[in-house]
Amino acid sequence: MTGTELHPRTVRDILQDGWLIAGNADTPLTGLQYDSRRVAPGDLFVAVKGGQSDGHAFISQAIAGGAAAIVYDMAWEGGIAARRAHPDVVWIGVPDSRVALAQCSTAFYRDPSRSIGVIGITGTNGKTTTSYIMKSILEAWRCKVGLIGTINYMIGSKTFDAPHTTPEAPDFQRLLRMMADEECSHVVSEISSHALAQQRVAGTVVRAAIFTNLTRDHLDFHATMEGYYAAKRRLFHELLADEGIAVINADDPYGRRLADQMRADTQIRTRGIRVLTFGMQSADADIVAEQIAPGFQSTKFRVRTNNGAFDVESPLVGTINVMNILAAVSVAVGLDIPVAVIQTGVRTTPQVRGRFEQVSVGQPYLALVDYAHTEDALERLLQNARTLLELSAGSRPHRRTRRRGEQLFLTEDAGHGRVITVFGCGGNRDRGKRPKMGEIATRLSYFTILTSDNPRFEDPKVIIHDIEAGIRGDNYIVIHDRRAAIAMAVELASAGDIVVIAGKGHETYQEIKGVRSHFSDREVLEEAITRSLERHRRRNEKPGRPCKAGSC
User: Fold this and answer.
1) Is 50 exposed, middle or buried (0-12, 13-18, 19+ CB in 10 A)?
2) What CA–CA distance (Å, rounded) separates 424 from 460?
3) CA–CA distance, 5 with 3 (Å, rounded to integer)
4) Poorest-confidence range of 435-444, 509-518, 539-548?
5) Given its phi and psi angles, is residue 354 left (phi above 0), alpha (psi -120 to 50 degrees) or beta?
6) Domain 357-541 = CATH 3.90.190.20
């Protein structure tokens, strides 16, 4: 059920002021498409100019597929000729078809965000984990919750594949309508900077908005950090509802700037929007994390608010998750959710796939899979791994791995609390972050293996060369094959170490030259560890062979 079956829509239902129509406004519409290949008889087709192609070039294909109405840019030079060639089709001229796609989608699916509490989360890092924590808290409050994000889409306990972090406008509004029809009271949605810049969520009413952080990423799309910030800012200035809640990371310079701008904005105050800041380092924030106690099994800390303090404990490991937990808790505080409910929601949050995810098949060292694919995310990830090492008993100083030719030699002190990292950078994306990530990985890791991520249409050797440009030491090697790189990291690991596989997280594919082949870091890591343990077991079963230190 999409919310349109019982009350079919017509062209008149989706019209906006300033649009020009040629044809019958009472023409019924059975669906809404922006991809001409998906058009069915009776659909509305919106021609959008994208980065790779222009939808106006596919209008004829859409009409051949049965489109009943066409939305096009008034500036399109082929408009007059197309209308004359197809007088039986309703033609709707708009100032900007990209914006019109969002407006049509909202109207077609009957403005679903007005009947459901949408909580939008934006930021470079932490969106996915924060969304799962937020969902868990709301469910502890006995709410039925929808989720739209990077890993999957969820309606209550039902799960659907997620092709995009934030889907295109028709798909986004259709999901909201499905969630409203399924009687969800709230929807937690990651909202990417691409979605904000491309108006995919325009017209959505957001009851609470979270700003996690802003660090370098997507500059291949936004060009500058100011452009990136401007896109994120839209969530708070264009989509946030009157009397809504803005929850902003005060530890982040861009977050501090956003909070200051909103508090100084007369219109924001007039609309009754509340600004709540949170942080670990900002003592003047409205909600602060204190007495942080990270551990191997859980993370504990105290939440200080303007109305008192309370303790929380989460199964999500690492101080890297404190700010994610605090962001969700801050929204809950703003919604006046009882403290006991907040504590339950935080305590029962499930492990998020590919986010500081532990992989264990009985090995005597910690193995992690994480989505970190920006310089800030990688630095935070490795700093957290090092923090866990400091907590582990028996961790002590050691000398570095040495290389001779193509062979690795571990020093006699190896195997006592080392971080071994495997990572690469995606192709056809921001090249500027590559050398910085190389510097971070080799500085914070005992040993680093550079490998392929999703090279897409780039030469993997060029990508790795870019990464190497930022490396000053010799504590790394290059293994282009990601499976072999992960296997090497496992072979180097000993008791007390931490193996970190970074960059792809939850993804189950590797994209090379436009072809996506199945590849899961978690699966490959599990297989490599299992094979390694089996080899050591067989070796140690042979008479006269003592166990390798820490491997029995």
Assistant:
1) exposed
2) 9
3) 6
4) 539-548
5) left
6) yes
Rounded to whole angstroms, the Cα distance separating 120 from 210 reads 6
Q: Which strands form 419-423's sheet, in the order they lie side by side?
A: 357-358, 366-370, 498-502, 419-423, 447-450, 476-478
Residue 363 DSSP one-character state = -
* Cβ proximity of 349 and 315 under 8 Å: yes
Beta strand pairing call for 117-122 and 186-190: parallel
For CATH 3.90.190.20, list the domain ranges present in the chain: 357-541
Torsion from C-alpha of 281, 282, 288, 290, nearest 10 degrees: 30
Can you read off the two tokens belonging to residue 421? 């990292």
Confidence of residue 5 (pLDDT cuts 50, 70, 90): low
pLDDT of 165 strictly over 90 = no
Q: Dihedral sign, CA of 78, 81, 85, 87?
A: positive
- Every domain of the chain with CATH number 3.40.1190.10 lies at 111-347
Superfamily of domain 9-106 in the CATH hierarchy = MurE/MurF, N-terminal domain (3.40.1390.10)
Q: Are 193 and 168 in contact (CB under 8 A)?
A: no
d(CA 445, CA 154): 36
Whose tokens are 């033609």? That residue is: 91
For the entire predicted model, the pTM comes to 0.86
- Angstrom distance (rounded) from CA 363 to CA 495: 8
Average pLDDT, the chain: 91
Statement: residue 542 has pLDDT above 80 = no
**The CATH fold of domain 111-347:** UDP-N-acetylmuramoyl-L-alanine:D-glutamate ligase (3.40.1190)
Can you tell me the distance from the alpha carbon of 502 to that of 381, in angstroms, rounded to the nearest whole number? Answer: 9
∠ CA 34-35-39, rounded to 5°: 95
- Residue 412's pLDDT is 38
Which amino acid type is present at position 530? Answer: T
Rounded Cα distance, 426 and 415, in Å: 31
Which residues belong to CATH 3.40.1390.10 in the chain? 9-106
304-321: b or e for each residue (b if 16 or more CB lie within 10 Å)?
bbeeeeeebebebbbbbb
Cβ 287 vs Cβ 304: under 8 Å: yes
Distance CA 255, CA 475 (A): 36
